[in-house]
C-alpha cells in the first residue's frame, strides 16, 4: 500500500512537470510568430529567459526552435536562435549564484545577450543608424517581457496585468490575419481585453496598458505612426474613467474614441469595426469575471466579516511577533573574557609576558580555568584560587588579582542585567502569545450562535468557606455562575497565605476569570492569559494564587487547574480523583497551559472542589471514604460534612474552601 501511494505521488509530479513543459513549449513557439519592426522576436526571447533552466527552460528553447522553423526566414531564425541559446546557457551557468536571485537579473541578462547577438548583424548592415532604433526598442521589449513573464510563471505581482501582456503578445502574431472587410479578430480580442483591464483597474492603469498595447501593435505592424498607441491609450483612459458607471458606459466611450480616431486617420476604417466587435464581446462577459464594488454580482463583505478578518490578522501579527522573540535570543558571555581583559591591562608590559602567554600558555590557561568555578561561586577572586606554581611565578600577581576582581564584578553585573532582560523578554513574549490566542478565540466565535449542548441538566450547588483558626477572613474564594453560551462554571482560588491579603488576591483572580468566561473566551485561552498577567504581578508583589475551574457543557464536564488541590467526581459509590501537576498561577516564567481533564457526567453525580487546607492527593483517604459513603443528594450537606470532618481531625491550620455540584435527577429542582 505504501509503495502504491508513493508511485501515485511520483506520477502526479511527473504529470505536473510534463504539463508545465508543454505550456512553455507551445507559448514560446506561438510567441515566435510575433515579429516587431526590424524582424525581431522580443516576446519569444523574453519568454525563453523567464522559463529559466532545466526541463522547463529546455522546453521553451525547443519551442523557439519549432517557431523559428514555422514562422521565420533562415537568416532571421539564425540570429533569433543564437540569442535564445545564449540566454539559456547563461541562465544555466549563473543558476544558484547570488546575482541570479535578483529580480532584475533575468531582464538585464536577456537585454545584454540580445544586443550582443544583434549588434553583430547591425554593424554588418549598410543602414546602421536607420536600424539602430528598432534594435534598441526590441531589446527593451525583450527585458520587459522577461520580467512580466517571470511574474506570471511565479504567480506574483498583478496577475491581471501580466495575463493581459501575455494575451496581447500572443494576439500580435495573428493580428495580421483579417476577415472580409479588413477586420482583424486578433485586434478585436486585444480591444476586449484592454477594455476589461481598464474597467477593473481604473483610468491610470487603463491608459498605461492601452499605450503599451498600442505601441506593441504599432511595432508589430511596421507602421511609421503611433496610431494604435493613441487609439488604445485613449480607449483605456475613457474606459477606466467611467468604470463605476457600468459596463455599458465604458463600452460606449471606447466606441466613441474609436470613432473619433477613425475620422482623424482616414486610412484605418477597420478600427471602428474591431472596437465595436471587442465592446460587444466585453458586454457579454459573465458577471463573475468582475470583482469589487463596480458590479452587483459579487456580494458585499459584511461588517462582521471584516471585523472577524481584522481580528484574525491582528492575532497572526502578534503570533509572528511572539515567534520573533524565540529567533533572537541573546548569546551568553564566556567567563574567559574576565582573564582576557585582566591580562590585557596587567600583563602587556610585564617582562614575563612571553613566558606566561606563549611558552607556558597551557599552564597559564589551566590555572585560569581551574580558578573560574571559585570566582563565579564566591563573586570575588582570592590568591588561594590559583595554583602555587602560577601565583609564585607571576611578578605582578597582586595587580593581576585586583584587575581580575574588577573584570569579575563587571562580568557579574552584565550577566545579572542579561538575566533581567531575558526575564522581561519572556514575560513580553508570553503576553503577545496570550493576546494572539485571545484574538483568535474571539474571531472564531464572532457572530456564531451559542453552541447547542443538548438538554441542559439541572443542578444544585453547596459551598462552605472556613478561615484558618485565629483569622476572621478566609484567603480562599469561590464562585459559580452560568454564561450566555450555556456553560455552567465553578471557580475556586486559594491565595498565598491567609487573611485579608490572600482574600484580595484570590477574589481578584476569580473576578477576572469570571469576566473572561462570560465574554465567551475559550477557557484555556482565558486561563493562560490570566496566568501570564499574574506572573507580571507576582514580580512586584511576590504573591501567587491557585485556580480550579470546573466547566459543565451539557452532559460533559471539564476541569482546569493551576496548582489547585484535587477535585473529585462521585458516581454512586465510586469516586474519581482528578489532580494536576502545574504550578500555581503567577509562578510560571514562560506561557504554560493548565492541567485539563474531560469526562462525561450523568444525573445523580457530585463534583467536589476543595482547597489545600482540606486535603491533598497524599492524605485524602478519609475524604474518599466520606464521599463514597455519603447517601444523600444535598450538596450543601456534603460540603458541611467535609468541613466538619476537617475540624474534627484538628486540621484547621489553613483556610478551607469546599464547593460541591450535584446534577439533579429528573423532577428535582435546580438551585444555585
TrEMBL record:
Which SMART domains does its entry note? PP2C_SIG
Entry-linked InterPro entries: Bact_Sigma-Reg, PPM-type_phosphatase-like_dom, SpoIIE_N
User: Superkingdom of the source?
Assistant: Bacteria
Residue stretches spanning the membrane: 15-36, 43-71, 77-97, 104-123, 129-149, 161-179, 225-241, 248-265
Alphabetically sorted, this entry's keywords are:
Hydrolase, Membrane, Transmembrane, Transmembrane helix
Q: Which positions fall inside the PPM-type phosphatase domain?
A: 456-663
> Which Pfam families does the annotation name?
SpoIIE (PF07228), SpoIIE_N (PF19732)
Q: Report the protein name in the record.
A: SpoIIE family protein phosphatase
Task: List the taxonomic lineage.
Answer: Bacteria, Bacillati, Bacillota, Clostridia, Eubacteriales
Amino acid at each position: 500500500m505504501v509503495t502504491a501511494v508513493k508511485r501515485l505521488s511520483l506520477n502526479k509530479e511527473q504529470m505536473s512537470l510534463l504539463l508545465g513543459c508543454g505550456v512553455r513549449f507551445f507559448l514560446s513557439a506561438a510567441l515566435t510568430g510575433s515579429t516587431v519592426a526590424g524582424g525581431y522576436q522580443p516576446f519569444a526571447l523574453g519568454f525563453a529567459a523567464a522559463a529559466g533552466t532545466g526541463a522547463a527552460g529546455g522546453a521553451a528553447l525547443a519551442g523557439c526552435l519549432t517557431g523559428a522553423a514555422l514562422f521565420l526566414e533562415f537568416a532571421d531564425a539564425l540570429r533569433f536562435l543564437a540569442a535564445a541559446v545564449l540566454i539559456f546557457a547563461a541562465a544555466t551557468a549563473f543558476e544558484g549564484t547570488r546575482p541570479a536571485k535578483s529580480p532584475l537579473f533575468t531582464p538585464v541578462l536577456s537585454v545584454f545577450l540580445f544586443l550582443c547577438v544583434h549588434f553583430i548583424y547591425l554593424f554588418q548592415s549598410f543602414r546602421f543608424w536607420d536600424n539602430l532604433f528598432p534594435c534598441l526598442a526590441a531589446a527593451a521589449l525583450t527585458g520587459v517581457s522577461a520580467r512580466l513573464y517571470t511574474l506570471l510563471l511565479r504567480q506574483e505581482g498583478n496577475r491581471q496585468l501580466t495575463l493581459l501582456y501575455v494575451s496581447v503578445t500572443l494576439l500580435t502574431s495573428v493580428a495580421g490575419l483579417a476577415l472580409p472587410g479588413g477586420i482583424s479578430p486578433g485586434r478585436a480580442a486585444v480591444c476586449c481585453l484592454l477594455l476589461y483591464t481598464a474597467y477593473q483597474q481604473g483610468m491610470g492603469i487603463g491608459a498605461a496598458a492601452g499605450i503599451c498595447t498600442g505601441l506593441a501593435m504599432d511595432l508589430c505592424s511596421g507602421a511609421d505612426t503611433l496610431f494604435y498607441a493613441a487609439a488604445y491609450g485613449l480607449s483605456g483612459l475613457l474606459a477606466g474613467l467611467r468604470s463605476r458607471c457600468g459596463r455599458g458606459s465604458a463600452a460606449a466611450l471606447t466606441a466613441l474614441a474609436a470613432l473619433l480616431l477613425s475620422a482623424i486617420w482616414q486610412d484605418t476604417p477597420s478600427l471602428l469595426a474591431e472596437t465595436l466587435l471587442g465592446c460587444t464581446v466585453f458586454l457579454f462577459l459573465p458577471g463573475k469575471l468582475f470583482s469589487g464594488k463596480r458590479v452587483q454580482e459579487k456580494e458585499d463583505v459584511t461588517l462582521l466579516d471584516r471585523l472577524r478578518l481584522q481580528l484574525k490578522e491582528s492575532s497572526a501579527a502578534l503570533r509572528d511577533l511572539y515567534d520573533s522573540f524565540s529567533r533572537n535570543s541573546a548569546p551568553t558571555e564566556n567567563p574567559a573574557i574576565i582573564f582576557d581583559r585582566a591580562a590585557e591591562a596587567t600583563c602587556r608590559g610585564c617582562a614575563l609576558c612571553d613566558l606566561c602567554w606563549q611558552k607556558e600558555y597551557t599552564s597559564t590557561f589551566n590555572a585560569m580555568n581551574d580558578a573560574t568555578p571559585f570566582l563565579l561561586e564566591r563573586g570575588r577572586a582570592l590568591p588561594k584560587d590559583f595554583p602555587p606554581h602560577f601565583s609564585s611565578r607571576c611578578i605582578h600577581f597582586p595587580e593581576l588579582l585586583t584587575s581580575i576582581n574588577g573584570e569579575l564584578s563587571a562580568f557579574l553585573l552584565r550577566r545579572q542585567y542579561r538575566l533581567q532582560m531575558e526575564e522581561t523578554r519572556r514575560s513580553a513574549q508570553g503576553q503577545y502569545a496570550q493576546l494572539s490566542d485571545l484574538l483568535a478565540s474571539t474571531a472564531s466565535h464572532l457572530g456564531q450562535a451559542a453552541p447547542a449542548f443538548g438538554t441542559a441538566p439541572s443542578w444544585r450547588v453547596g459551598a462552605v468557606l472556613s478561615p484558618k483558626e485565629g483569622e476572621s477572613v478566609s484567603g480562599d474564594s469561590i464562585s459559580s455562575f452560568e454564561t450566555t453560551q450555556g456553560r455552567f462554571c465553578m471557580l475556586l482560588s486559594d491565595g498565598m497565605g491567609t487573611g485579608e491579603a490572600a482574600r484580595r488576591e484570590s477574589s481578584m483572580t476569580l473576578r477576572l476569570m469570571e469576566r473572561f468566561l462570560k465574554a465567551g473566551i475559550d477557557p484555556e485561552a482565558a486561563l493562560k492569559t490570566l496566568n501570564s498577567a499574574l506572573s507580571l504581578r507576582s514580580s512586584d508583589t511576590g504573591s501567587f494564587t491557585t485556580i480550579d475551574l470546573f466547566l459543565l457543557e451539557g452532559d460533559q464536564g471539564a476541569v482546569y487547574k493551576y496548582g489547585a488541590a484535587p477535585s473529585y467526581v462521585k458516581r454512586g459509590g465510586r469516586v474519581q480523583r482528578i489532580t494536576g501537576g502545574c504550578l500555581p498561577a503567577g509562578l510560571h516564567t514562560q506561557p504554560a497551559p493548565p492541567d485539563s481533564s474531560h469526562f462525561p457526567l450523568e444525573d445523580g453525580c457530585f463534583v467536589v472542589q476543595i482547597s489545600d487546607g482540606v486535603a491533598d492527593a497524599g492524605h485524602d483517604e478519609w475524604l474518599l471514604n466520606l464521599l463514597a459513603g455519603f447517601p444523600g443528594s444535598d450538596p450543601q450537606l456534603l460540603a458541611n460534612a467535609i468541613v466538619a470532618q476537617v475540624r474534627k481531625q484538628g486540621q484547621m491550620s489553613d483556610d478551607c474552601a469546599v464547593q460541591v455540584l450535584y446534577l439533579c435527577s429528573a423532577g428535582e429542582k435546580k438551585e444555585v
